[in-house]
Amino acid sequence: MRRFFLRVPFISIAALACALHVARAVEEDHPVEDAARHKLQAKTDPSLPTLYLVGDSTMKNGTPDQRGWGEEMAQFFDLHAINVVNQAIGGRSSRTFQSEGRWDGVVAMLKKGDYVIIQFGHNDPGPVNDTFRARGSIKGVGEETQEIDNLLTHKHEVVHSFGWYMRKYVTDVKAAGATPIVFSLVPRNSWKDGKVVRSSGNNYGGWAQQVSQATETAFVDHNEIIAEGLDGLGPEKAAALFADGKLHTTPAGAVFNARMAVSGLKTLAGDPFEKSLSPAGREVEAFQPAKSTEGPVTSPARIDLRSQGAAGDGKTKDTAAFEKALAACSAGGGGEVVVPAGTYLIGSIVLPSHTTLRLEKGATLKGSSDIADYPLGTARWEGVDAPAYRALNSAFKADQIAIVGEGEIVGAEAAGKLRNPRGAALVEPVECRGVRIEGVTLRQFGVWTLHPTFCDDVAVVGVTFDTN
């Protein structure tokens, strides 16, 4: 059992309350449809193969003026050659689509030669257990579980990770002799630097792809395909496709997303739907990623810290080796820095976007006692921006970053106990999106151990905190 040490003075209660308020507001953006009013649909012609769609309100939507992309898919298929059956229902996560029994109903319909598109993620970040919706799954693709007495259903339940539920969909479909196709979730109407914000790497889109790779299952990056299409329209024209301005689409937006789905299906090995498309479907071109203007696309890097000259003896400063490894990941578009067993003496380091720091068992990041190793800047302190030394592990406006593994990070007391300026926190991502801290042990003295500031989508899983 993991210990959890916490000193109350270093918890930002106001920030926590604000985060819960925001989470509830986001939850309310996702309509929950009444299952009694949205029963499973039967296939039109039992003699034909069937394409089933399984997902949430972005795929099928009962709210006036909103429409899910799955509701527009039939027009792209020859319904004399294949059935198209949309079994999605609003408000469900990868977990609750199964726990409510809806998935069992779909599985009972499957036969050899059928196909199932599986797309979830937008409702999975919610609370695991509450009296409101209780639909969240554990973030990631791991095997961790959480036993609860569900406050909403009043039933005992074992909650799994997003990846676990997605793997179950895939396994059940294959067991029925059908073909699963994993889709990444559709993007929001959210823009950064003139482009739609993607969901990839250490997030639901990336986790969906990881499941497809681990299970050797077909994958369509619906998120990326739609995002590229929206990029081409620009924010003003794209806004007309969103009924709520955020996520859920107008009828025109639903057709747009359905067309992008067909474009993605055409990229699958063997083009399995080639003979099942309608004239409208045949007109859709297979997706081709936009050519990068920033050099060739490379595979995510996996860099062993020792290869960058790290000593790991607890005496030699290894900051430069970390900086070199992180820079290499950044240059390649992201990756993973693997820290093997050893003690690595470092000053402040900064994680770039799409980067994972993996601490293997026996690995310790030890903060330097030399305050010169922590650049002076500003940080939040007692609710205001104040002079502060940069955290031992820092990130600023980064997307999809993670610190994971069985190792530990230990702060230096000399750097943490300072008050004017504020001492160096241990882990402090600022204005980041998609932050995951998992499995590691964090030891800090005198200042915050973990201090996410103005971040979105933060997951802290199985972490031991020691503030002794």
Report on this structure.
This protein has 468 residues and is α/β, with parallel strands linked by helices. It has 2 domains: 8-19 and 298-466, Pectate Lyase C-like; 31-283, SGNH hydrolase (Rossmann fold). It is 23% helix and 24% strand. It has helices spanning 13-28, 96-99, 102-109, 162-175, 204-214, 222-233, 235-239, 251-265, 279-283, 319-331, 413-416, and strands at 50-54, 83-86, 115-118, 146-149, 156-159, 179-183, 191-192, 195-196, 218-220, 301-304, 313-317, 335-339, 342-346, 349-350, 355-359, 363-367, 376-381, 384-389, 393-396, 399-405, 408-410, 427-430, 433-438, 441-443, 456-461, 464-466. A 6-stranded parallel β-sheet has the order 10-12-15-20-23-25, covered by helices on one side. Strands 11-13-16-21-24-26 form a 6-stranded parallel β-sheet, covered by helices on one side. A hairpin with a 2-residue loop joins strand 17 (376-381) and strand 18 (384-389). The chain is elongated, with a radius of gyration of 24 Å. The two termini are 19 Å apart.
